[in-house]
Amino acid sequence: MSNDVYVVGIDMIKFGRFDDAKPESLAARATLLALDDCGQTIQDMQAIYAGTCNGTMMGQRMLHYIGQTGAPVVNVTNACATGATAFREAFIAIKAGLYDTCLAVGSEKMGKGMLVPKNSGGTAIPTEGLLGSGVMPSVFAQMGMEHSRKYGTTFEQFARVSEKNHKHSVLNPKAMYQKETPLDMVMEAEMIAYPLTKLMCSVNVDGAAAAVLMSEKRTKELGLMNRAVRVKGSGLASDPFTDRNLVMQDVNTVTRLAAARAYEMAGVGPEDVNLVELHDCFATAEIPHYENLGLCAEGEGGAFLDSGATTFGGKVPVNLSGGLLSKGHPLGATGIANIYEIAQHLRGEAGKRQMEGATIGLTHVVGLGSACAVHILEKA
C-alpha cells in the first residue's frame, strides 16, 4: 500500500469577533468540528501540530478544553504561513510512517485596525514616517506599484480583485463579511497606501480551523475514503540568498520556490489545477501571484483577471471563499482555512459556490519574514 496521506476531517469556525475567547478556546471549537467531520475523537489523534502567532504552547492549552491525552504536541509559529506549516508537519509525520492519524489546527485572536511593529517595550511603534516602508499595507502597495511599473497593471484592475472576492464571499456562510462591494465603492474607499484603499485590505478577525490527516492504510480501515482528499504535494520555502541591500521579503520569489516544490512532489503542473485559494492579504498581491503560481504568463496577471478566468464559473476560480479580503485573515488559522475551502469543493460539498467537476486544487500562503507554503490537493 502507498504512503499517501489524506485529509479525512476538516472544518473551521465562522470567522468573526470573539471578544471573550482565547486562541486555545477557538482552536478547541475548530478541532471538535474537524473530529466530528470524520467520526474521530481527540483520543484517536497520535500527534497534534498547533499553530498560532499569539502566545506559546497553544496546542497543550487547547487540550485543557477537550481532553489531555498524552499525545506529543508540536507548536508552530511561521507568521501568516503558520497554519499551513502545522498542516505540513502533520503531513510529513504520516508520510514518514511515524503516525497514522494526526491533527493540525491553527487559531488566532487579532486586534482591530492596522498591524504595526512593536518596540522592545511591547508598545506599537508610531507609523508616522514609516508608511512606504515596513508597515504591511505599504509593503504590498509597493508590490502593486512595482507590478504596475513593469507591466502597466492599473489601479482599477487591483480594485477588481477586491470586487471579485467580496462577491464570492456572499455564498460563503463562514466568511466574516458576506457583502458585495461594487467597483466604485472599492475605488472610492479611504486610501490607505496607494493603490490600496481600505476595501482592498484583508480583514483582521478571530478564527480557527483544523484538519485530521490519516495514512492511506488507516483511512481505508475506517472506511473514510469516500470523502477523503489526498494531499498530493506540499512545498515550503524561505527567501534565497541575495546580495541586494533590502530587508523586505521577496514574496514573488519565495512563492515560486514553494510552488515549484509542490508541483514537483504532486507530479502536476499549473495547467492541471482547477481552483486556487491564494494569499490575497491585499488586493495588489493577487495579480502577481497568478504569475508566481504559473496560472498565467509573466506580466499577464491583469489580463488574466480581466478575462474572467479567476471568477466563479471561470477557467480557474481564485478565492471562491471570499479570500482574506472578505473571509478574514486570522494569521495562524488562514493556511488551514484555505485547505478547508479546497476540500469542500473536491468533496462536492461547497454548496452554492461549488465548482463542478473540480479534482485538483491549490492553496498558497505567505508569511512575511519569510515563509511560503503551497499545498496541492486531489479528490480521492
Automatic annotation (TrEMBL):
Signal peptide: none
Domain Thiolase C-terminal: 253-378
Enzyme Commission number(s): 2.3.1.176
Protein name as annotated: propanoyl-CoA C-acyltransferase
InterPro entries (UniProt xref): Thiolase, Thiolase-like, Thiolase_C_2, Thiolase_CS, Thiolase_N
Pfam families, per database record: Thiolase_C_1, Thiolase_N
Domain annotation Thiolase N-terminal: ranges: 5-184
Native source species: Sphingopyxis panaciterrulae
PANTHER family: ACETYL-COA C-ACETYLTRANSFERASE (PTHR42870), NON-SPECIFIC LIPID-TRANSFER PROTEIN-LIKE 2 (PTHR42870:SF1)
GO MF term list: acetyl-CoA C-acyltransferase activity; lipid binding
